[in-house]
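Entry type: protein chain
Record version: 2
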Amino acid sequence: MFAIPPYGLGFPSGTAQSNYYPGGNLSEEEISSISKLLELEGLYPENTRISKQGDLNYTVHVASVQSSKPPSISLDPGRTVQIVAGDHATELASICSELSLAATYAANDIQKDFLSAYIDSFRTGSLDKYRDSLRLWVKDKAPRVENIFGFVEPYRDPYGIRAEFEGLVAIADDEETRLLGKLVDNSATFIRRLPWAVGETNGGKGPFEKSLFEPPDFSSIHCWFKTFFFFSNG
């Protein structure tokens, strides 16, 4: 009753905790060893958590709707790691259901395709599928409705690689986007006013700028819905 719990986020210890590593009995060395093993096995870590059973057995929990329990992998002689899919299955099933409904309102085929890839990734736990969704997402130029979904926020993992799930939906502001477009249209003028843009080097842009400025695709957006599902940190 009078025990003082850890009040900080960090590697499990007497003064810190992280639900990326539930149980609180994992050392930084163990976390590092398992993360390197996953890398060797070609498994991405962003949607995973790690727990320890006893002294020699570990479980890597993969966030997905589908569940699986494949054979264990040897970490080193005497220690094994089992990769188990199905972590946060209930929450991800609900997200997939809502994304399926959202796809019926997609503005074009690219949006339908990346929403489908989102769903495949969340159902299976495959981060290769998630990377496929992002390759499609960047092709959707100047969308009226912008979005971000997935395990993309690694800031609270003490090891710096496991991520929380973020969901964001935003509406583009046409007038503000038009004003920012004027800034981009005059970028060559502003670049030549930077402190290092001296003399005639690189057409007056200085030594650090590209000879041809390539403006990014951009929109000024107003966030309509944003949430962080702290699946991994409670």
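Comment: Residues 154 and 160 are 6 Å apart (CA to CA).
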